[in-house]
Design a protein that fits this description.
Shape of chain A: globular
Shape of chain B: globular
Distance between the termini of chain B: 53 Å
Structural class of chain A: alpha/beta
Oligomer: heterodimer
Radius of gyration of chain B: 21 Å
Order of helices and strands of chain B: HHHHEHEEEHEEEEEEEEEEEEEEEEHHH
Structural class of chain B: alpha/beta
Mean pLDDT of chain B: 92
Number of helices of chain B: 9
Strand order of the largest sheet of chain A: 6-9-10-3-11-12
Distance between the termini of chain A: 31 Å
Chain lengths: 249, 438
Amino acid sequence: MLQIKNLQAGIEDKPILKGINLTVNAGEVHAIMGPNGSGKSTLASVLAGRDGFDVTGGEALYNDNDLLDLATEERAREGVFLAFQYPVEIPGVNSAYFLRSAVNAIRKHRGEEEFDAMNFLKAVKVKMKELGLGEDFLKRPVNAGFSGGEKKRNEILQMTMLDPRLAILDETDSGLDIDALRIVADGVNRLRSDDNAQVVITHYQRLLDYIVPDFVHVLYDGCIIKSGDKSLALELEEKGYDWLIKEAA
Amino acid sequence: MSQVATTNPAFEPVEAFNKLEQNGAALMPLRKAGLARFSESNYPTLRDEDWRFTNVKPIAELPFRPTIDPLDRELGQEQLGNLIFGQLGTDRLVFVDGHFSAALSQIDDQPSGVTVTHLASGLAGLERELGGLSGGDDDPFVALNDAFFTDGALIQIGDAQRLAKPVHLLFVTTAGGDGEATHIRNWIVAGANSQGTIIESHLSLGQAASVTNVVTELRIGDGADIEHIKFQDQSNSAFHLASLYSELGRAAQYAFHSIALGARLSRNNLRMRMAQPGTECVLNGLYMLSGQQLADHHMIVEHAAPHCDSHEYFNGILDDRSRGVFHGRILVQPGAQKTDAKQTNKNLLLSDDATANTKPQLEIYADDVKCTHGATIGEMDDDAIFYLRARGLDTPTARRMLLHGFAGEIVERIRHDAVREELNALVLGRLETVHKLD
């Protein structure tokens, strides 16, 4: 589904990603861990198409097509979803209106019938209940004045509604208490299937107790310095990153 | 008097005053005092602190033509049919160039304790009260209004009465000649525990450089709850000046919404006096400008009693070479403890040549108060656009959604459902037609 080959990117002249190689197949969950400043969020941003990052080398293929050549919205319509580390507050834009527009943009692209207000409400209310979001949520402006936990649950709600093939979750666990973490993880787990994949970026092993990865990769200084199965995450929890960094040096 | 005569040799104040005197001799002291004050001050200039960013020189250069008499330009019901709020089922008072039109107005079904009429018909006894709230102001346009006002709305809602339906005050200028100046005076008294929605619209039919100059005095009794929506959509050659004086009684609630879309230059002086404890005042405004337009909101919110809340929210969308001006003074008098005053002014610049001037001014003489203010001037939020695009929306759709949201934030606060919906649709349409969204 996703093949990243020797991907190099940075901001202005500062290189951040220095040759990432990663293959994600359908049905897999990959965790990307690493200390602060290692390039985890840059990787997420580059894959989602955020402005301001220059790709200087390598490639990222999504279903065998050049992902980096697509506009941000085209990637979204093709099924790439980024759950933001810092979801953006959009005062004045009603959540229901926003979400229905997004869902319909994607349904239209897939050749599916667009939701009318009634069908949309029916579909979204089921998902909201699963995520513990009250009905007033739809009337509130997107993320405006939301608590940290509400913002993250909103990301998961959007993900659920947009039904992506490839979901990238950027530090979705940060700022969540254990109950919220469980709700968010349940949301991700419900989405898992043989035709989609998740890339979970996290600083802490904690989230991986709930979203169990097939592969764990350690990103350091713009490169993946170690890959393994879920036991690697436990090892990192216990020993920290220093031993790996020394090993890689 | 000499200055008015000098700058405008064609204008003869004595003759105008003779005509005005026929409408009410008891008003002549107010009128004469107004003219004397204006002769003394003349028009403000950029050197006046309160007019630093708003240049009224183009008004001073116009011929001086107060519309003391109706201009006799025929205007039929059909011309008003499609105008804003025409289908809301309101009571409607229509003024054409400052003169009441009985033929175009419709007033019915209000309860017996409610008076809805035009000022010239119901002046008896009010002559001494007019200016009671505005009299302390040295604003030159208020002085001109005192001198030359012709008519305006008179609304009195008795104690515990409620307007059966919203009252729509529709002020139309025919704008057939440069300098035609309409001076409108509104007098509104809401009794204790009364309720109502008042809508005020200002439109122009012609394209001449007309002047509209409004003074509104509004007394809101104890426990009353009044919503006041002002919609200004005059032509881009028009000049619009307005001063609103509101005094709030104990535990009164007042929401004032200003939607300023039109006029080459508009100025709204908002003077709120929270005279008794427990009042709540919301000032909520949206200005959307293009071309060379300027919109200025100049507020003084006076907390004169404890436990009062005031909230000011003003958003501006500024395109082309337009300018938005916001001046928000919050004055907390000694003893006005537990004041909660909030103020925000956000400006979205859609062009490199647009300008926003924003000036918060907190003056606090009590020690147990909460006052906050915030102002932003910027372009559209790139992070928000990226967020929307990452959800599958293309850039034009994302920009449209953000702009609509920015304007909608203000419109949303209008409590009257039908008014809010009509304005929401209108604002959205205006964003599409006037502002570059793609």
